[in-house]
Amino acid sequence: GQQLNQSPQSMFIQEGEDVSMNCTSSSIFNTWLWYKQEPGEGPVLLIALYKAGELTSNGRLTAQFGITRKDSFLNISASIPSDVGIYFCAGASGGSYIPTFGRGTSLIVHP
Amino acid sequence: NAGVTQTPKFQVLKTGQSMTLQCAQDMNHEYMSWYRQDPGMGLRLIHYSVGAGITDQGEVPNGYNVSRSTTEDFPLRLLSAAPSQTSVYFCASRSTGSQETQYFGPGTRLLVL
Which residues of B touch A42 (CB under 8 A)? Predict the structure, then answer.
């Protein structure tokens, strides 16, 4: 099946720092998605990308769909304690649009 | 709208017992899916459905059955629970269209002894 490599696995940062995480795939995707999961909750969609090269922002979050369609990155600027959680990338292709998920990046922000 | 609801929130089973995890959505979404989440493994797709009466297997379907008799409901059945099925299970739904958004339920935490 499709493989998604998400890195880093975990990050421990100080409040105010910028964060960058990325996903790479062995396959081409038509859609890249970024989710955040807080403890005890289901994942919540942060950003959806539909076009190669697309750069999309959602507040302090910025994500890009790689030109090769095999990668994507998520940046968080000026991190705050409530950014804590697990961030997942997901890629989808084909008509069924059932995404494949990366293994997640666990983010801890120290005040 | 309640969105995607899942019941129960927690469940403890003995090996060999059967149970059904319920999932319902009130957004008239065509697509529904079940994932399991294990530490360090991300979300793995178990089964999915692209509409009432249509289901298909995902990445890890063994030991699970699904059916989709209505648009709203997509139950997941464990016929004979095994300790390897201890996990957190998430149901998700989405609509078709140009701006697809997948919504997840709050999850069911299952422990199989």
Answer: 4, 90, 92, 104-107
